[in-house]
DNA sequence: TGTGACAAAATTGGTGACAATCCAGGCCAT
DNA sequence: ATGGCCTGGATTGTCACCAATTTTGTCACA
């Protein structure tokens, strides 16, 4: 149990929201889990009022579901919606990849290739966590290089909602072997300053993610 | 001044949020305008607490900007960000157009063509408001037919933020002559069940919107 | 054993009061 | 004049309290 820092300093609503977001991302809080205001207030050392506004924020973000007089729960995202989210992400990340391909500097290209090499090594060594790290590094760097902050914010919000499926996926044996060449293709296209190719490669990658999600839920 | 319905019924936070959203969309509240909690509470007949939570929601949605101890203002979206928003919308609406092209029924296709004819007529008659209505009808219908609710929600949120630029644009003389053929091209591609063509036409349309926005701010 | 009614506990919703903070304007010294 | 400083008013932030509602537990009765 993640206990709140028992310092006397007041914990603001934004901080509570961040903690809950974190807890949902890490799987500490699972879908449909009830979020009792008093409990959260105690756990994080915040007042109930702050917890309330934090839950309000998270509701707008789509991470939490609130029912009048019945309290808040971690929202459970159905498979169908998760696939929609991946489709939207595909469109947005393809945009980012294309822009990144237009704007990338030589130094950044080298950095990107280094990420690619790290991912290859991770697959060779069967190091799941290193591969996952490379994965987030890659997507994160493309978004950063693209300079599209609006798209970045949207992608982050959507990814947070679909986190449950992300999990199942990366836990799947052999998934990295499948996705590695897709990732390398993205890197190649971006480093070659080929926007159209980068977008295509990114869409292909996320189409594969979509398929894999469907398969991973067949059990 | 839109006064609150002076009924004794309590006005909920969600309702206040809706009213403020509406006021921003319609231009009743302009960028950087201060939103004083007590005033809003009085105007809408709600308690200050409800106004507060409404402002919290709108802040997460990006319509309102809040500074600690300094209150809330209508967020002013800079040109640069508005262009980003249009780019993101292009990616998302292209996705919707493509899906709509895959899923549209014959009846819906006829409805879509009717919208196209109405827009042609509006341009012929120089009826600005009819054209604007056709415009929203068209985009709305494509999104509805596409069945992409996640994308739809995201588009709505983004469009609400960029509403100021939308205005200047449709007020511009000759804008409809420029955009009409683009709209017709989208309709044609969707009705021809050509997803790739529909996406391309939509991207072309929004690229033109982007250019027009840049031009409309050169004054 | 199961079911419905009812009371008690738990939880959320809402409001008012008060504290903290910011802002405008006046005032004084330089 | 100009700049620093103070004070009063306006506004926001926070909390404690109570009302409303839901949920849980118990018990009588079929």
Write a short abstract of this structure.
The structure is a homodimer of 219-residue chains. Chain A has 219 residues and is mostly helical. Chain A contains ten helices and three strands, in the order αβααββααααααα.
Explain the overall architecture.
2 copies of one chain form a homodimer. By secondary structure, the first copy, chain A, is mostly helical. Chain A folds into 2 domains: 13-74, Winged helix-like DNA-binding domain superfamily/Winged helix DNA-binding domain (Arc Repressor Mutant, subunit A, Orthogonal Bundle); 79-216, Four Helix Bundle (Hemerythrin (Met), subunit A), CATH 1.20.120. Chain A is built from 10 helices and 3 strands; from the N terminus they run αβααββααααααα. Chain A has helices spanning 13-25, 37-44, 48-61, 79-103, 106-124, 128-146, 149-161, 163-171, 175-191, 195-216, and strands at 34-35, 64-67, 71-74. A 3-stranded antiparallel sheet of chain A has the order 1-3-2. In chain A, strand 2 and strand 3 (71-74) form a beta hairpin. In chain A, helix 5 (106-124) packs antiparallel against helix 9 (175-191). Mean pLDDT of chain A is 94; it is low at 1-7. The A-B interface holds A 53, 56-57, 60-61, 81, 84-85, 87-88, 90-92, 94-95, 148-151, 154, 158 and B 53, 56-57, 60-61, 81, 84-85, 87-88, 90-92, 94-95, 148-151, 154, 158. Chain A binds a DNA duplex (30 and 30 nucleotides) through residues 10, 36-38, 47-50, 52, 68-72.
């Amino acid at each position: 149990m993640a206990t709140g820092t028992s310092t006397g300093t007041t914990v603001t609503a934004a901080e509570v929201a961040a903690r809950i977001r974190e807890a949902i991302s890490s799987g500490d809080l699972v879908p449909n889990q009830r979020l009792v205001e008093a409990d959260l207030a105690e756990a994080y050392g915040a007042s109930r009022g702050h917890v309330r506004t934090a839950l309000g924020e998270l509701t707008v973000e789509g991470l939490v579901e609130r029912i009048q007089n019945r309290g808040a729960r971690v929202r459970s995202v159905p498979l169908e919606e998760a696939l929609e989210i991946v489709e939207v992400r595909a469109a947005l990340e393809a945009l980012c990849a294309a822009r990144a391909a237009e704007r990338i500097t030589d130094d950044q290209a080298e950095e990107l290739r280094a990420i690619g090499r790290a991912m290859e090594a991770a697959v060779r060594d069967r190091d799941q966590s290193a591969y996952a790290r490379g994965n987030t590094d890659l997507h994160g760097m493309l978004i950063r290089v693209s300079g599209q902050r609006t798209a970045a914010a949207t992608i982050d919000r959507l990814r947070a909602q679909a986190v449950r499926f992300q999990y199942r996926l990366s836990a799947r044996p052999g998934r990295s072997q499948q996705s590695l060449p897709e990732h390398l293709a993205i890197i190649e296209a971006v480093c070659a300053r080929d926007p159209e190719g980068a977008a295509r490669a990114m869409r292909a990658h996320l189409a594969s993610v979509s398929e894999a999600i469907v398969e991973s839920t067949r059990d």
